[in-house]
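Lecture notes, unit on protein representations.

Consider one protein chain, 331 amino acids long.
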Amino acid sequence: MMMISVVVILVFCSFHLASQESHSLTLSATFISGETQFPGFIVVMKINDIPVEYYDGNIEKIVSRRYWRSDNTIEQYDLKKYIVHDFYSYMTSFSDVMKRRSNHTQGVHVSQEFVACDLEDDRLSRLILLYAYDGEEQAKYDILHKERKSIVPEFLWNQSVLDAMQSLFSKLYQPLCVSILRSYLQQDKNILLRRVHPKVRVMKKAHPGSGRTEVTCLATGFYPPCINMTLLRDGQPIPDREVTAGTVLPNGDGTYQQRRSLRVSDEELKRQYTCTVTHLSPENKLTVNLEAGPDSATLWPIIIPVLFGIIIIIAVVVVCWRRRVAKQGAI
């Protein structure tokens, strides 16, 4: 499911970096054919990249993920269940076509559908569909602009099918997406509209075996997961080919982290390294310099003996206290 996760973040962030009044509703459906321990069919609905509901094919129910609410009632349950079955029907056909084209008669294969609608300044700004098979995108449709692209002829809709899909989306999915998005943003605005800016550090770590030092810029604790990071050397951006860029990762507390690193020689380390981080908008820009002092690898030989000595002192104090208490009890 990595492909869909990356797409979700890219689609979501492309709007938030452009406007703080942009919001996104996404549906990610995964259909698995073959023997697997995972549910054969699951759909996850997210608002601004926060999971709010999901459908589990094993129990055939829609379940709330709004842990911050005491009432877990699913609004418009029957209509959402109809949409889930519509997804399932289409993805079953999609999976059969792709397996036949790829000559896949055995094994586990994953089909995915991704739908996103976005409100920008409270107006629908994008409605797209993506289809993927075994991690590779197969088709993309832009409903608002009536654009379609597919590497699979069976999914390159002709004009009559496209007109039918346009009608279905304009009468059902488009108004439903907008109404659900607006409703959730109003009900759960304290969670869905929150802004948490990143904490940024630029650190160094020696690698004695290679004779080089790793310089890392770490931004963590931010939400939403939209961020631009640039490592600079003497005030100039370092070429991408020299930098190892990590993906945006969840922290587990609803915030995210990302890092960029490069390895330099002792001579290069004498130069000035800084990191600029932009979150949400160009105005929210942070610039952080490389931390002075020894790196973390150098500090551990100092920290470990100190900690060991503190533990010994505490143990001696506890033993002496217990002996004293025992003597007083004997008297």
